[in-house]
Amino acid sequence: MDEKEKEELLKEIEKKIEDYTKKIEKNPNNASYYYNRGNAYHNRGNNFKNLERLQEAVEDFKKAIESYDKAIELNPNNASYYNNRGIAFKNLGDYDKAIEDYDKAIELNPNNASYYNNRGLALNILGNNKEAIESYDKAIELNPNNASYYNNRGIAFKNLGDYDKAINNYSQAINLDPKEAIYYNNRGLALNILGNNKEAIESYDKAIELNPNNASYYNNRGIAFKNLGDNKKAIEDYDKAIGLNPNYSLAYNNRGLALNILGNNKEAIESYDKAIELNPNNASYYNNRGIAFKNLGDYDKAINNYSQAINLDPKEAIYYNNRGLTLNILGNNKEAIESYDKAIELNPNNASYYNNRGLVFNNLGDYQKAIEDYEKAIELNPNYSLPYNNRGISFYNLKEYEKAIEDYEKAIELNPNY
Predict the structure, then answer these.
(1) DSSP string covering 106-171, please?
(2) Tens of pLDDT, residues 134-154
(3) What percentage of residues in the chain have a pLDDT greater than 70?
(4) Is 34 exposed, middle or buried (0-12, 13-18, 19+ CB in 10 A)?
(5) How far is CA 342 from the centre of its chain?
(6) Contacts of 191 (CB under 8 A, 6+ apart)
(7) pTM attached to this predicted model
(8) For burial by CB atoms within 10 Å, which of 225, 270, 292, 417 has the most?
(9) Dihedral angle at the C-alpha atoms of 180, 181, 184, 190, nearest 10 degrees?
(10) How far, in Å, CA of 241 to CA of 271, rounded?
(11) Among 98, 107, 100, 168, which Cα is nearest to 133's?
């Protein structure tokens, strides 16, 4: 739909609003007029939302609710009035009120599958995935041929980490409606998480075939190619995503990650720069740019980026760890230990953080503390060769040569490249 067609549609909706308003003036006690005017406001709100005219969309959703309120006042026993008001509340982000309205609609008409589905959607957004699944179960029981209900239930299962059930539901949706691209994309996302990247790519291929203008499908396929080590194909997909949506910050970030792996750190930084320009509040983008600067030996800029990431998300352990690694390279051992301390505080079960802090203690000549950290790393991950090797170095420095040899041998057993 081009701009002219969009404007024509808005004019048509405006005409409907005017017509229902005139009908209401002549007969102010007819609930259906208010309901239909509410639907017209709601429809126009959705169109404004799609046009990114968000303030106008909000105003229309509020006007829709006012019309639905009056319809319900005049006829409190019509389930569809509550359902549609619930959808308007959902569009305004008031999910609790939306659920109240869906519950009332279900009470009045317990055999309408769409009401249960809508309730599930709102519960999903609130993170109540188990309750959402119960609603979707009922929707599917009442209407087992609606593909979207299976897709929505699949999303809830994915949110709960039950990826096999999620995939099963997406596949059921596809069987019912094989022409809907989003179902293939969602299946691809779940397959990706399970590490089934080739199958994921097949799903993304189908999504792209059905809808070649959706940037996120290319971005998601790019991630699968990256996971398979095919970073060139990944970059091609990220480039396609960016071509379709030049404001897609995630695609620039992912392009940077693939370029980093290929050793093209300067180009990676350019991609991260653009991602940050588009979304300056995403901590991971600064962290990733920091890694690229570190790879180039620009440690001060790397530390600055890690610190920016920490300022935006002070609860993410990896940012402190990465800053510690770079401070260590610069010989700022005490500051490095402070960063590792914080990383360990936030995630005490990551073996590499203890190993990294142990290296700093070793550099400071505090071999006993270093050994304690290496032992903790080994306890957390007995197959982690690096802390055995590093503990061997600390034992060697303490002139405990037999223990050092034992550790070196264990490190070689786990990693023959030592």
Answers:
(1) HHH-TT-HHHHHHHHHHHHHTT-HHHHHHHHHHHHHH-TT-HHHHHHHHHHHHHTT-HHHHHHHHH
(2) 999 999 999 999 999 999 999
(3) 100
(4) buried
(5) 25
(6) 167, 197, 199, 200, 203
(7) 0.89
(8) 292
(9) -110
(10) 13
(11) 168
